[in-house]
Amino acid sequence: MRDLAQRLLAYEVGVGKNSEPIESPTLRVYEKLRQSLGTSVGVAGFYSLASRALVLARPEVPSLHGMQISEDGALHGLGEIETEIDRKNDRAGEGGIILIARLLGLLRLFLGEALTLSLLRNAWPCEVFDDRDSGNGRKA
Amino acid sequence: MSTQEKVNINKLPTGVPGLDEIVGGGLPEFSFNIIAGAPGSGKTTLAHQFVFANATVERPALYFTVLGESTIKMLRYQQQYTFFDSSKLPDSIRFINLSQIVLEKDLGAVLEEITKEVEKTNPAVVVVDSFRTMVRKQESSMDLQSFIQRLALFLASWQATTFLIGEYAEEELRDNPIFTVADGLFWMRQTAERNSIVRKLQVIKLRGQNSVPGLHTFRITDAGVQAFSRTFGLTARKRNPPNDRRLSFGIAELDKMHGGGVREGDSVLITGASGTGKSVLATQFIAEGISHGESGIVAVFEERPEAYAERAASLGLDLETPLKDGKLAILYLRPLDLSVDETMQSILDAVQKIGAKRLVIDSLAGFEMALSPGFRADFRESLYRMIFALTGIGVTILSTVEVEESFTEFPFSTYSISFLADDIIRLRYVSIDGQLRKIMVVIKMRGGNHAKDIREYEITSKGMVILGKRLTEFQGLISGIPVYSNRSDRKEDPAHEPEIGNK
């Protein structure tokens, strides 16, 4: 799932260069997931998944301890963990990659790869998922 | 208004095998339906099958989930079914969670949200699962009635076929406005009977078309819900006109006793004690048909198909070749947990698949034992429906049934199923000269004359062989313990032909 997370983040980097205001690609990916999945699984459903993903990601990236997820599923504290260099270069930090990967990993765990990708296709163009050489999300 | 001006109601496939037949060819387009039943009865699965069968990118399905099973879990479990096609999400099928609105707002807000999504998506199918949890909040009955009517009107106007799913008890059928507004009401029940689960579906109401009344068995398998119509899917087929074509049993003397053979489309019952040769006769009947190009089905419950074919081979009857050629199917049905309708559907599917003209059920006792205990009470009724349906399309059925040998009475069957049979052949043991010999008699032949002769027969390496003499030298043959009569004419004419008289 790390590969897929990186592809989604890389896509958002490209989109972010043309958009204002400048947001972290991690936040853009997270918000798209929140919007897309929130519709189908509900606010509470998304909150549960995101909270669990954060708990799973924290041991790998200790700085994620500063992040929180509110009951409406919004992510808080991302700015504090992304480095100045990341922000300057509009790239996702390791914490963002891990968090998104864990969230996608949970989706795959519960729904399977095919259905997870189907749901994500609603939020990103198909080409983001077509790069089979990148593992198509298989390398979690 | 002439019939030409009547509106044509399109029928949508339900995606549930057997259900289209039950609802009269498909679900009426734009109908507003309720699927009711206890938790675990298959309501959500049925709705999913309908959604996956009908949703397209152009006319998608909106699946609103409310409080209850989480969407993640629902998708996790539902995708295990073979009908679940992940690629249809989210373009053709969209899941929308309304829990937050239901928890925080009122029914008006729920209607507003549904309206917004419907106007945005233009769906062909809308499902609200579970509708019951949505209206459990303490709204006044007027609010609820108004909400349901507005929802039904709106969705019909937007040309959506709708399902509301709810956990309802049957006593709630009265006084609940939702059941009044609904065009279709499907009730799914599951009850535990002894060690088995019995699932039944009833179409309590369906506006605009005739559905098959009554309780229909259904099963939930890897493929989802499968329903078994009480009419076995044969209601649409015309009954064949009666004809007098005779089919050979493969035993020339027995054909003569029937005036030339069994009438095509008859149901024949072979009754007798264990070892009297019922299965041998049945095997000869099926093999004779195959030799004349008539495909056949043998439903066995007491021995495996290989053993059945081997036993036939020991009688000089080749069943292996027609099995390979697809002209014969031997069904081994003894799962012990099947419903009678389900078992019969297996037989019907096989009959229709190979275009069988002859069917052997060997035996009815084994058939009954193969059923889940909860379904045995329905056995005779279901058997009647199957025999009526199959003989109506020209299939000739030969069933065997074991009777306990009695030396004080002469029962035709222990099942009280003689009324199911057009023809009855009774086999029995008799004690003669220190030997246990076998006799047969044609008890009944509906719509035709048959011999009244009591004939002795033997089971040989060539099958059942009827010996050349009518047994005139005995009295009390059917008691099983005959005595020699004192008649002077007891010596039989070697050239005797069976007497065919009136019934």
Q: What key phrases describe this protein's structure?
A:
heterodimer, A: 140 residues, mainly alpha, two-stranded antiparallel ribbon, 6 helices, B: 503 residues, alpha/beta, nine-stranded mixed beta sheet, 28% strand
The largest sheet of chain A has its strands arranged as: 1-2
Largest sheet of chain B: 9 strands, mixed
Strand order of the main beta sheet of chain B, please? 5-4-6-7-3-8-9-10-11
Order of helices and strands of chain A: HHEEHHHH
Q: Bin the strand percentage of chain A.
A: under 5%
Number of helices of chain A: 6
- Rounded Rg of chain A: 14 Å
> Helix/strand-derived class of chain A?
mainly alpha
Query: What is the averaged pLDDT score of chain B?
Result: 86
Oligomeric organization of the protein chains: heterodimer
Rg of chain B (C-alpha, Å): 29 Å
Uncertain runs of chain B are none
Approximate helicity band of chain A: 55-70%
**Overall form of chain A:** globular
Can you describe what's shown?
The complex is a heterodimer of chains A (140) and B (503). Chain A has 140 residues and is mostly helical. Chain A has one domain. Chain A is built from six helices and two strands. In chain A, helix 5 crosses helix 6. Chain A is globular. By secondary structure, chain B is α/β, with parallel strands linked by helices. In chain B, the strands form six sheets. Chain B has a nine-stranded mixed beta sheet, sandwiched between helices. Chain B has a nine-stranded mixed beta sheet with strand order 16-15-17-18-14-19-20-22-23, sandwiched between helices. In chain B, strands 1-2 form a two-stranded antiparallel sheet. The longest helix of chain B is centred in the N-terminal third of the chain and has 17 residues. The radius of gyration of chain B is 29 Å and the shape is elongated. Chain B starts with 10 loop residues before the first strand and ends with a strand. The mean pLDDT of chain B is 86. At the A-B interface, helix 2 and helix 6 of A face helix 3 and strand 5 of B.
